[in-house]
Amino acid sequence: MSHGSQASVPWSKSSVSPPSVASRSSGSLAPAGAEAVAAIKRNTAPAKRTPFAHRPSPVPTIPASFRTRSLKGYFTNIRHSVRRTRPRTVRNVSVGAAIPCGEQERTGVARDRRPGQRKAKRGGAARARAPELAPRAPQAGPMRSLGTSPLLAIFRGFTYGYVALFAFGFFLPFLYMAMSFVPMGIMDRVGTSRSGSTLVTLILIAAVVTVTLTLIEVVRAQVLERMGTVIDEKLTRICFDAFNREKRGAGGSPAQALADLQTVRRFLCGPSLSAIVDAFWSPLFVCVMFAISPAFGVLILCLLALSGAASFATHTLVAGHMSHAQRLEGEANEFGLAVSRNAETVRVMGMLPFLTERWYGLHSGALGWRAAAQTRAGRIGLVPRMVQNGQMILVYGLGGFLFLENLIHIGVLFVVLLMMMRAQGPLQHIVTNWNSFQSFWLATKRLDALLRSVEAAPRHIELPPPRGALVVTRLVGGPPEIEKPIVNDVSFTLQPGRILGVVGPSGAGKSCLSRLLVGIWRARRGTVVFGEQDLTHWNPDDLGRHIGYVPQDVEFLPGTVAENIARFDPQASSEKILEAVDMAGIHDILRGLPNGYSTRLGPGGHTLSGGQRQRLALARAVYGMPRLLVLDEPNSNLDAGAEQLLGRSIQAMRDAGSAVIVVSHRISLLAFCDDILVLNEGTVQAIGGREQIFNRLPRLKAAPAAPPILDLAADIGGSRAA
């Protein structure tokens, strides 16, 4: 639909359009508007309904039984009855970009106008426009703020659910009031009239109110649980993707991120949120107590003020202690996990006693700060606790005085007690569980920072498989947490069907270069063009299918050997897995495994040697015959025979048309390379064909089978002098 028709006929997306509005619209209609008008003429609805179809059905009540899997079915009619005809823009908070037009019908979200585009006048024809392929201009900051936090943008989708919960809470105070007047009626009416029918009537009223209260509370709890599940589904995918797609900062922790998700979910579907909703109606009970007697109203206000002041003082004076305790607990947990990951080295080298003392120092420090906080909180809380325990005596004493003055009936005391409990209950729950509110607030701040740390990703189209050369131009980059770049001004071109060997001394930037080439780290300057497309133009998930990568430290995810080789692709075929195994030449390893391809790897699975891990990682890298293969020290744990198999594998990938980059300290692997690039201190010292570099650096050619390259800078300097 063009923007002109959208502006002139805002109802054209509905399934049934008002004839009066249709008659007033002028100009050409978009196809969807013409279809709606034709549907009116033949008194039938269009065949295709749009996400924002007008549904004039009445607002239904929410059933007590829930059989659907999401909240969409509960509040669909509520949502469409109050939604405006003009669609709102919904952005994908996981990447900070608007949902593309191809996803509009699937997600039910309409795009907004581009910045700077004028709204077409009513009756005017809309100007045609080409589909947008390039990303919009990014706003300031790593992630577009969306006017609010990314988490708040997600929670907005559940506004109608929380409105319904608030509506549930509207009926609860009146039901509680009805319950409180039952004992007063028994005391005043039945006690004086001795009427059995009155007693039965009051008991029946109490039973009906009790059943209604129970049903409303059960329904509210189920809706909260379902909403918490849906929110968890949305947040888990977004945060997991955001945390693993970008390089984590110094304070990042996957365990902390997942714990924050659980904290948010427990709060949003637990009693704390219900207490907040119920607290809105506490003033109503206070007003009723003022209506009964101003003295009772003043009493409840004094009790609430005393409780609030004590709680504020407690949390103000204890906040610093609890912050220190939580920080030390986090450090102790991280330190304990690090020791557990290196348990073998710790035991063999006799480091366990010293590490135990260090861990216990952190743990005992956390215990000390927490004990000090509890001691201070206990002293401050003595007065409100004493008042809370004696509030019944206060009510009875004040009520007895008012009764003696003939200002109230004796049965009013029951009403006052129940009203006081309902007025104080939600607030007391908030005060008592204030730590959970603080934990929720801190968790949302951390998750918000996690989402904001992910740069706004542009919208990518699906590119064809890369067929051209790998062109690196003036590449500068390094680890994100280090300001000074490690790789400086690196340029080269690698044609398909060629093998490039990257050598250099330790710390020369070889591994950094390999991470930049495969997109793990982003280049600060320069470009990496693969298949005539810059790496930044690719969707990372699509690009990964065309890249094979073997890191220095090989780890496998929990799963079988076949799943790890297939990169956990659920659509992987046995032929592609066997092809990767043949290409890597690891049949001898698989024959030695207890369950072959079904052997479990990862924590609790089969333990592989360093050489076996590297060869299995090679099979994972060559799975699917990627167009670019980057191997970072793939032979560091291989013997001579396995190294020959590695050389044959990379030559087979070269013959298949792939571009191969091999980073190695061993000279013997250079014999399989077509070109050699020498790095030193992050810059290119020499690059050229294998024989050319061998002639320029004779030490490479005359070296033994597997020596480390130590002083290439001296060789390069000597060759330049010659």
Automatic annotation (TrEMBL):
The lineage of its organism: Bacteria, Pseudomonadati, Pseudomonadota, Alphaproteobacteria, Hyphomicrobiales. Residues 174-439 form the ABC transmembrane type-1 domain. It is found in: Cell membrane. InterPro entries: AAA+_ATPase (IPR003593), ABC1_TM_dom (IPR011527), ABC1_TM_sf (IPR036640), ABC_transporter-like_ATP-bd (IPR003439), ABC_transporter-like_CS (IPR017871), P-loop_NTPase (IPR027417), Type_1_exporter (IPR039421). GO terms for cellular component: plasma membrane. Keywords: ATP-binding, Membrane, Nucleotide-binding, Transmembrane, Transmembrane helix. Residues 1-34, 45-64, 104-141 are annotated as: Disordered. Residues 104-115 have a biased composition (Basic and acidic residues). This is ATP-binding cassette domain-containing protein. The chain crosses the membrane at residues 153-179, 199-219, 273-292, 298-318, 393-421. It comes from Plantimonas leprariae. Belongs to the ABC transporter superfamily. The keyword Zinc does not apply. It is a multi-pass membrane protein. Residues 1-30, 125-140 have a biased composition (Low complexity). One of its GO terms (molecular function) is ATPase-coupled lipid transmembrane transporter activity. Residues 470-706 form the ABC transporter domain. PROSITE patterns: ABC_TM1F, ABC_TRANSPORTER_1, ABC_TRANSPORTER_2. It holds the Pfam family ABC_tran. Its main location: membrane. SUPFAM superfamilies: ABC transporter transmembrane region (SSF90123), P-loop containing nucleoside triphosphate hydrolases (SSF52540).
